[in-house]
Amino acid sequence: MELCDLSAEQIASLVHKREVSAREVLEATLNRVSLVDGRPGQLGIEETTPDDEKYVHAFISLTAERARVQADEVDRRLAGGEDPGPLAGVPFTVKDIFVVRGTPSTAGSRILANFVAPYTATPVERMEQAGGIMLGKVNLDEFTYGSSNESSAFIPTPRNPWNPAYVPGGSSGGSTAAVAAGEGALSLGTDTAGSIRQPAAFCGVVGMKPTYGRVSRYGLIAFGSSLDCPGPVARTVKDATLMLSVIAGRDPHDQTSVTVPVPDYASRLEAGVKGLRIGLSPDYFRITFVDPHTGELIERPIDPEVLAATRRAADVLASLGAEIIEDVPMPHTHYGIPAYFVISRVEAASNLHRYDGVKYGYRTPEYVTDLRDLYRKTRGQGFGLQPKLRILMGMYVSAAQYSEQYYVRALRVRSLIRRDFETIFDPSGAYRLDALLTPTTPTTAFTMQEVYGDSVLMQYADELTVPANHAGVPGISLPAGLDRKGLPIGIQFLGADYAEATLLQIGFAYEQATLGEDWRKRKPQVVERLAV
Amino acid sequence: MRRQGFTQSRYVIIPAMSLTLEEVEHIAELARLELTEAEKARYREQLSAVLDYIARLQELDTENIPPTSSVLPARTPLRPDVPRPGLPLEELMKNAADTEQEQFRVPPVLD
After folding, report:
1. Whole-prediction pTM
2. DSSP helix/strand/coil, A192
3. Residue A357 at interface with chain B, using a CB cutoff of 8 Å
4. Tens of pLDDT, residues A456-475
5. CB-based contact A401 B12, cutoff 8 Å
6. Is B101 exposed, middle or buried (0-12, 13-18, 19+ CB in 10 A)?
């Protein structure tokens, strides 16, 4: 096994013991990037080449020299008897929606392509202060608006390491593709409707959306401010635990970061699932769907292989002593997407007003008659399809005459979705669940360009993840097998507010119990082919 | 600006262009977005599809349900009013497209 394929926990342990240096781990990882990543995403590329189709393209900016300085500093501190922290020497990537001082911070958009951040996002700063080595910034859907990573202005966009003909999912597709391909043990992503969990499922890695407010949003370029959650992407549950422990906690720079104490997540990891109540809901085993041809609203069961993997996970947990509660009603699950279509667009439109070609970012090179013309042209040229659509939609549904009909109604529906969760997790209620076990996504990854361009269809990829964002509750997606096409299947555990420790504990138990399964020995295609 | 009606029964939504081109142009102007003709047509189609889809929200009785704009309780915590250094002006200005004497330069606001 190469150094870049080790878990963060193993790397930190070896580096602490000085059996390998942070620099050696970094060089092995940079070598992996050079072998699997292909050319980075960049502006001004119209067409990808057949050669591009073989590579991952996770990166927008690889900051190798910056990383070397950091790695040498970690090694120097260790040589001097200091402890650089729990992530000593662990290479990680950052979704390019976080600002990092002195590096390009693009949000995958032309409008921020030339923006070099003057400060660093709190979660990134915490990882660096814990000894982590930032490799660079990875690709995403433009401003995180998408579920396939295809909407980035930086092309080639990321591809799925398990089969590059398929999308990695999104919007944290660069993060999950990088982690799956050995390009950094960890990545910092964001989840607004499923943007960590859905691509984690598609790429066969662990992805966690913490409780809203658990991780600071300071330095996160805002999308849906009441929904956005930074969170970890990792290859193992233990690594996700390690990373969450570093990034969680109150930040005076973010008034929505909570003062709730951060528990010692690692201490309960091996506590097992005996006696825990884990629910299954039929509302998560089907999706509702508008037929694109007839407009008819139809219900469809989720992919049978994904359902089977979820049921198998329930059996595994039952055999470990968990109590499985069937038929848990989550009646408002399927209103999650329509409510999200309203709420997230209103918040996005509001957040995108700041891009004006004046303070930072792109400014139209064309002649303009006045300031208003400057705004119009700058924004018309700087934003891609998705930001424009979301601005228009958000402004329409929050306009004074439609606000009650759309926006306020969506916020009321959000309360109903939240009540579904409060009911099942209520410790004195009828269900008293410790977690709800669901599929992460209705299907495994789809091929590039299969869905892109249809906003409604694309959003179904998030149907099973978005309710947790409305409700603010935490969720984790774990790899749970491969389908007959060899693509990863993800299962999801959802918990009550601040129940991250419980989700990690259950996830760890599931992971350990299935370590010997054949599918776990398989590697992503882009890594596999390096061996031959 | 008038929202055109959409045809909807409980389970069947008949696709219709629920948004006019003029409405798209009006919102684009409010949003300070210059759009090409092709974009206007495309956005009209996509936005209409989304509006039809979100009509589902009308199925639910939300009469006595309060809206949730944030899952966190509203609060305005105070911190001690202690001066601290901000980012250097030079660093803040260097991302601007055009500056002069530590100010942002823009085209005329008024005729």
Report:
1. 0.95
2. coil
3. yes
4. 778 789 999 999 999 999 99
5. no
6. exposed
- Cβ separation B53–A335 shorter than 8 A: no
* Residues of A with active-site annotation: 95, 171, 195
A46 has a chain B CB within 8 A of its CB: no
Within A248-370, residue ranges assigned H as helices are 304-319, 336-352
A3-270+514-531 falls under which CATH superfamily?
Answer: Amidase signature (AS) domain (3.90.1300.10)
Find chain B residues with C-beta within 8 A of A362's C-beta: 97
Integer-rounded Cα radius of gyration of chain B: 23
Q: Which of A358, A388, A413 sits opposite B57 (nearest CB)?
A: A413
Closest residue, chain A, to B92 (C-alpha): A118
A405 contacts on B by Cβ (under 8 Å): 58
Nearest to A295 among B15, B46, B98 (CB): B15
**Least CB-CB distance to A412: which of B62, B96, B107?**
B62
Dist CA A103 CA A86 (whole Å): 24
Residues of A (238-267) whose Cβ lies below 8 Å from B? 252, 255-256, 258
Written as six digits, the tokens of A194 are 């499923």
Q: Which residues pair with A325 in a beta bridge?
A: A279
Rounded Cα gap, residues B23 and A491, in angstroms: 42
- Candidate from B13, B28, B35 with C-beta closest to A295: B13
All residues of chain B having their beta carbon less than 8 Å from the beta carbon of residue A114 are 95
ipTM of the complex: 0.90
- To the nearest whole Å, the CA of B96 is away from the closest chain A CA by 4
Q: How many CB atoms lie within 10 A of CB A315?
A: 10
> How do the pLDDT tens digits run along chain A, 532 residues long?
899 999 999 999 999 999 999 999 999 999 999 999 999 999 989 889 999 999 999 999 999 999 999 999 999 999 999 999 999 999 999 999 999 999 999 999 999 999 999 999 999 999 999 999 999 999 999 999 999 999 999 999 999 999 999 999 999 999 999 999 999 999 999 999 999 999 999 999 999 999 999 999 999 999 999 999 999 999 999 999 999 999 999 999 999 999 999 999 999 999 999 999 999 999 999 988 777 667 677 888 999 999 999 999 999 999 999 999 999 999 999 999 999 999 999 999 999 999 999 999 999 999 999 999 999 999 999 999 999 999 999 999 999 899 999 999 999 999 999 999 999 999 999 999 999 999 999 999 999 998 887 777 787 899 999 999 999 999 999 999 999 999 999 999 999 999 999 999 999 999 999 999 999 999 999 999 998 7
Nearest CA in chain A to B71: A472
Cα(B63)–Cα(A398) distance, integer angstroms? 19
Q: d(Cα A406, Cα A438) in Å, to the nearest integer?
A: 29
